[in-house]
Automatic annotation (TrEMBL):
Every Amine oxidase domain range: 34-191
Assigned protein family: Belongs to the carotenoid/retinoid oxidoreductase family.
Pfam families: Amino_oxidase (PF01593)
Main location as per UniProt: mitochondrion
Gene name of the record: Pyroxd2
UniProt protein name: Pyridine nucleotide-disulfide oxidoreductase domain-containing protein 2
Cellular compartments annotated: Mitochondrion matrix
Record organism: Sterrhoptilus dennistouni
UniProt GO molecular function: oxidoreductase activity
A GO cellular-component term linked to this record: mitochondrial matrix
Primary role: Probable oxidoreductase that may play a role as regulator of mitochondrial function.
Gene3D superfamilies on file: FAD/NAD(P)-binding domain
Subunit structure, as described in the record: Interacts with COX5B; this interaction may contribute to localize PYROXD2 to the inner face of the inner mitochondrial membrane.
Keyword GTP-binding: no
Alphabetically ordered keywords of this record: FAD, Flavoprotein
Length: 356
């Protein structure tokens, strides 16, 4: 249990609760849920430029990372077709992958196919079910994709000024503006209460908020004096109590709750807002293809990790379809902007390609 780990190492409740946020991030779980300790480990096990557990912003926004990968690929001769929806994987007479068919009917022939889509989309939508073992299909259908995350992107006309550390007179970013700011996590009990509300179908009345201001480090993201604020919030159920869906009213009501909380820490925040973009779990699924809105393509619980990700006997990136590989967050070792799944899948695919 995460609580036992934190109690062993720390005394300060606000510190324990802040660290606990990384143990429940992206997970419909409480700090008291068994297995939550691994999620914390997953978020701090890496390193950045020799600093263990460090995280970094991508200059130019997260899209700049995708562009850098794309440029490296095209420099080596790759052809990239964006906004071309794949309908299904082409299979040969022996059941092996031979390419993909696009929504417009175009066939792209290939000896190997690597899918960065979720296991659910890859195996339940792009491949004929009769070509897959029944127990494998059942396992993919049963993967827990429940997600508590609502992402809110905000444009503001001035830097938030927090009561705990007011802004300087010149309005320039201070060190804390350049970090991840955690709100509503003074006590692990607050996190547990927020989780419990969502477990009963109600958006948290005092949600966990992770607030970042990327423009404090990368001014080019916003006009002079203005900023972009990224809010990673929990907990919001995919389906609201009573079977209600996330309509515009529900979406705005939850965002208002989040903004009211931020206002308590940084008076004047609400008045500074120019625009906001609210992405609930169903929005994240619809727009980005994240099953259940889950940023990891599936929960990072112990029964869905290591040899069991995405299914027992298929954690080595190969799938029941020869020549079809899984290389996204649904593969080992799971989610996060680290490229481990893609790197490992590429090594396996290259090894197999040599024998074709």
């Amino acid at each position: 249990l995460l609580g036992q780990i934190l109690d062993h190492w720390f005394e300060s409740e606000p510190l324990k609760a802040t660290l606990a946020t990384d143990a429940v991030i992206g997970a419909m779980a409480s700090p008291h849920t068994p297995g939550s300790g691994y999620v914390l480990l997953h978020h701090v096990m890496g390193e950045l430029e020799g600093r263990r557990g460090a995280w970094g912003y991508v200059a130019g926004g997260m899209g700049a990372l995708s562009q850098a990968i794309a440029q490296a690929a095209t420099a080596r001769g790759a052809h990239i077709f964006a906004e071309k929806t794949v309908c299904h994987v082409l299979l040969g007479t022996g059941g092996e992958a031979q390419g993909v068919v696009l929504q417009d009917g175009t066939e792209v022939r290939s000896k190997l196919v690597l899918s960065n889509a979720s296991p659910q989309i890859t195996f339940l939508e792009l491949v004929p079910q009769e070509q897959l073992p029944k127990d494998f299909v059942q396992r993919i259908q049963q993967v827990d994709t429940c997600s508590p995350v609502t992402k809110i992107n905000v444009a503001v006309d001035r830097l938030p000024s927090f009561l705990a550390a007011p802004n300087a007179r010149d309005g320039q970013p201070l060190p804390h503006h350049q970090c991840s700011i955690h709100l509503n996590c003074e006590d692990t009990r607050l996190l547990h209460q927020a989780f419990t509300e969502a477990a009963h179908g109600h958006p948290s009345s005092r949600p966990m908020i992770e607030l970042c201001i990327p423009s404090a480090l990368d001014p080019g993201l916003a006009p002079p004096g203005c900023h972009v604020v990224s809010l990673f919030t929990q907990y919001t159920p995919s389906m609201l109590a009573g079977g209600r869906s996330w309509d515009e009213q529900a979406r705005n009501a939850y965002a208002d709750t989040v903004f009211d909380c931020i206002e308590d820490y940084a008076p004047g925040f609400k008045a500074s807002v120019i625009g906001r973009d609210i992405l609930t779990p169903p929005d994240l699924e619809r727009i980005f293809g994240l099953p259940g809105g889950n940023i990891f393509h599936g929960g990072m619980s112990l029964d869905q990790l290591y040899f069991a990700r995405p299914a027992p006997s298929y954690s080595g990136y190969r799938s029941p379809i020869p020549g079809l590989y899984l290389c996204g967050s649904g593969a080992h070792p799971g989610g996060g902007v680290m490229g481990a799944a893609g790197h490992n899948a590429a090594q396996v695919a290259i090894e197999d390609f040599r024998h074709l």
